[in-house]
């Protein structure tokens, strides 16, 4: 029997570690926070775990993917080790090195994983590049920048024809191009990936692997570059294994027959370092989800969830939003998804209250229990898990406490508490970029991640911290008053729920705060039944019911709120942020900075006098 109110249903049991920290307060208000438990022992390199699990559970499935026809391709631990060793031998024979690394341009896949781990085993850095730099660009400027810095000696793509234009535009003829399939005409030719795994491994692989240590660069990840050109982060073996050990200590359930169904891209630190690394470290099974949190692709995720029961599920709030309707329609998929799950995490943005209610209602309906939601914060440069809440946070932006081995320095900056990080999982320098390196650290060697936090309970610091936006996102009005961008954005989304996808706050140096609103079009259809199925974004943005709702939300703000604590004007934008226009990240979240940079004309429109016809202004009464 299930509880009438889902919020009253019990949480499913999950095995968790300690959550207690030591706080050292300084006279200037700075606080140094570290986990009470020291970081445990860990291997010198992640690929030691590949060898370990190949011995311990050789026939268990390590990697699995489903093709477009629904057929499975599965690889056991023993098979994976054999193929990785062959790839490592092939790289050694080509004379590749830190100065001539491997670049992977394409999406997640078994070949992608084998090549990345072959790089680690041979000591050759692997450069993971966002596929959008190749597939969504016409000038390939970011791709050229990344490859120019990395100077790869080998470039891999899964589909040669699909990436042919990018390779012609950004890859020199002297660089070997390896393709999974669909080779294309190219000066210098192409190599099939099958020839790499067909290479016979020798003692050279063992010798190369023995030379790999904690300070060996395992991969180079490039940050998105939303505020400038992408910068390279050399991710060492120390960064990877220390962070995985810290996660294991705080979330020991990851060692309990871990099964993931995961779409997060491996060129991103959370997908490639956290998720894939977690499965390697703990001997689990990684099911590569070729779906994405968007209509037309989320169906692939459901297809996989009907066959695989994950124990831990990680996505973003947008993923929940598009997945839930399909799960409600497909009871078998919902039951299978939640059958063995003990924990979930939805980073990238706050979980709207209505989404959490719908998610928990479905969980309770099919299992009689709620499933814990954890949260954390980190970055490509630090972690990726630096602070972690290993307890149920619901839809609150609680990010917890530092993980073992990580120190957090909490520094008062204006009205914010900036968090800075130091520890074995923090980068030491950017790739060939001394100027950015010097600017990234303070005088004590703490990395300035750019995030702000606040205490969950000032009287009880052990309850951890909450995310409080980006330090650089906040701005001052012309009056000199600081604006808390994250707080205003969250309140606007909550007031509009479930009809708003996101809000981008404006007002730097202006007299009042404005915002660009991006609708959740699918949810808005219920408000606009008169619109046809093929209605444009402009039709929804100008619809009187939607505009009336926006007016109501603006006018419902507290009358006593000061100019920095309310939004006075909004414009509903018909064009959605997307990967194509550079305003959406690979995790399906909206890049506030990119929107502001690209839509400067809209920002000006928000402050026009008299206001434009589509501007909605708060009625002061």
Outline the secondary-structure elements:
Layout: E1 21-25, E2 31-35, H1 47-56, E3 61-66, E4 72-76, H2 77-93, E5 102-104, H3 110-122, E6 126-128, H4 132-135, H5 141-150, E7 154-159, H6 164-170, E8 176-181, E9 191-192, H7 193-197, H8 203-211, E10 217-222, E11 232-236, H9 237-250, E12 259-262, H10 269-282, E13 285-288, H11 298-305, E14 312-315, H12 317-329, H13 331-338, E15 343-346, H14 353-367, E16 372-379, E17 382-389, E18 398-402, E19 407-413, E20 416-422, H15 434-440, E21 447-455, E22 465-470, E23 475-476, E24 482-483, H16 485-496, E25 500-506, E26 514-519, H17 521-524, H18 537-541, H19 544-555, E27 569-572, H20 592-598, H21 600-606, E28 615-617
Parallel strand pairs: 3-13, 5-6, 5-7, 6-10, 7-8, 8-9, 12-13, 14-15, 15-16, 26-27
Antiparallel strand pairs: 1-2, 2-19, 3-4, 10-11, 16-17, 17-18, 18-22, 19-20, 20-21, 21-22, 23-24, 25-26, 27-28
Describe the structure.
With 621 residues, the chain is α/β, with parallel strands linked by helices. The chain folds into 3 domains: 6-42 and 242-470, ANL, N-terminal domain (Rossmann fold, 3-Layer(aba) Sandwich); 68-212, Rossmann fold (3-Layer(aba) Sandwich), CATH 3.40.50; 475-617, ANL, C-terminal domain (GMP Synthetase, Chain A, domain 3, 2-Layer Sandwich). The strands form 5 sheets. An 11-stranded mixed sheet has the order 1-2-19-20-21-22-18-17-16-15-14. A 7-stranded mixed sheet has the order 9-8-7-5-6-10-11. A 4-stranded mixed sheet has the order 4-3-13-12, with helices on both faces.
